[in-house]
Amino acid sequence: MAGLIKNQILKHLSKFAKNVSSDSVNVSTLKGEGELTNLELNETVLTDLLELPIWLRITRALVNRVNLKIQWTKLKSVPIAVSLDEVQVEMETCSELRSHQSGSSVLPSYGSGGRYGFADKVIDGMTVTVNSVLITFRSHAFHATFQLSRIVLDSKNPLWQKADLRQTRLKDVDRGELLIFKELSWQTLRVEAKSTCDQALTPLRLITNQARCRITIKKKLTDCSVVGCRLVLLMDDLLWVLTDSQLTAAFHFIDSLSDLVKQAAQESQKTKAVRKLESLPEFQAQLAQQVQQARGSGSSQGRGSSSGGSSSRSSSSQSNVVKVFSKYDVPETSYHFYSERIDLHFCDDPGRKY
């Protein structure tokens, strides 16, 4: 039994990790626990999973230890708990933008390509905790490091409250789309950036306390492809002290990325155009008609005399689903920032003479 479960874990894990083997997986079948060590994650898959901008890519990702806890009898309502110790990630800007499909959705490299099913629900519902993450970022103008501690990624309901897993998703069958609600939180974040072109520029440093990020992901039910994502970063108080040279360095870093960001924005306009076309009433009506025809072909036989009252209740229930889905819908990918208070202090460099 343990060998069978181990093979299933390896089958799914091989999509995310490069060097995974049966020797690196320890499984306790009865306890529903497993442990993996020294994993090298697949950079392409991780880039897709994190929905990174097309001007950015991951070059390396390592995890020293992973612990799994699975409640076999409650997979539909209780998430799989994944605990990671230390994660190291290296990323860089692209000299040329990563390839972007011309369609309105992107089929993830880790997906099966089939219809959204039970295995996808289990993966999307996982709760992930990480002790520490070290991210190294490289561009032609500067290098930066991000250190995060006590990270938690878990599922929430549309009101951003803890709930049964079945309440953390919204599905609209007529649209063929699904909304998933996840919240990412961390205890501390340390950022440091240094110029590689001008050593005279003072490094930028920023330390923040607790923060959280609310993520809404929209997928297609037909192939599990990601249609859009809304990311909202929430912080309590932000205090940042900048000297003259640090302010100059900040403008220098932003300017070095501006061209890539503009190119990526132009590419995203093409995707938005296709999405706008698909959101037209004519397209939606045609899609709904196809869905109804597909349903009717399988259920018309033997159910021709269903009561009008049952049909009315079904129509009312479906109308409520559409209203709720529309309320939390993600028309297009967007990023938002909210803070209770921001304090920026500007001062002269120590010892500077005028």
UniProtKB/TrEMBL annotation:
Residues 294-319 are annotated as: Disordered. It comes from the Eukaryota. Coiled coil: none annotated. Residues 308-319 have a biased composition (Low complexity). InterPro entries: BLTP3A/B. This is UHRF1-binding protein 1-like.
